[in-house]
Amino acid sequence: MSSSIPVVTIDGPSGVGKGTLAQFLVQKTGFHLLDSGAIYRALAFGAVQDGIALDDIAKLVALANALPVEFIGTDILYNKEDITAQVRTEEIAGVASTIAVIPEVRAALLARQKAFATEPGLIADGRDMGTVVFSTAKIKVYLTASAEIRAQRRVKQLKSQGVSANIDQITRDIEMRDERDLNRKTAPLKPADDAIVIDTSYLDIDAVCQKVLSLVKEQALMA
Ligand code: DC
To answer: What's the CATH number where 208 sits?
Structure first.
């Protein structure tokens, strides 16, 4: 990454509002978007499709190195097939979080993520954007919220898509993923030392968006 490219990193657990904040900042700044979770989900999708065992490091790395994923607007294409809805399932999220523990898999996906940092700038959403992938980013934001509140938001989101959801099951899934993301040895989920930590549990997402936008303006990151 050229350090002259402005990068804003947004890290935190799932369901914390990262995606909403990232989309808002993309609209306001005109910067590119990296949804790094979508890359891990696309790899999970490919691994399931190819019947790769989730502990077969060599095959997972080979797939990661040649991952046929493309991002067109908000669509995720895999081998030119639209998999946007298919990668949003809890099952794929679980597989993504399982294979994301493997250091060799993370290393194989690094260059692909760094390549997103081009003019005029980048909004990077994930777990290790500020700590590993863009460790020299100008602005680092880390969002948090309790697992219960994140589960409630997820259920609401699923219901709005016409999908029925069990709050206890969703809370358990979220806690299990948190556990894996927080405790893995490589690039565990944690705020960078220089990150601004925002608890979104009782904060309106609009307020979070405005707060981060004012930081971007203060730092004069936009042209
Ligand atoms: O953000 P998401 O829910 O789409 O991410 C799915 C999984 O991918 C998440 O549980 C852990 C993994 N992931 C990761 O390890 N590092 C990232 N930068 C982004 C996602």
So the answer is: 3.40.50.300
Residues lower than pLDDT 70 in the chain: 1-3, 223
Say how many Å lie between the CA of residue 96 and the centre of ligand 1: 7
Cβ–ligand 1 distance for 127 under 6 Å, the answer: yes
Asked if residue 1 is part of any domain, the answer here is no
Is 222 part of a structural domain of the chain? no
> Over the chain, what HEC string results?
CCCCCCEEEEECCCCCCHHHHHHHHHHHHCCEEEEHHHHHHHHHHHHHHCCCCCCCHHHHHHHHHCCCEEEECCEEEECCEECCCHHHCHHHHHHHHHHCCCHHHHHHHHHHHHCCCCCCCEEEEECCHHHHHCCCCCEEEEEECCHHHHHHHHHHHHHHCCCCCCHHHHHHHHHHHHHHHHHCCCCCCCCCCCCEEEECCCCCHHHHHHHHHHHHHHCCCCC
pLDDT score, position 1: 47
Asked whether residue 103 is domain-assigned, the answer is: yes
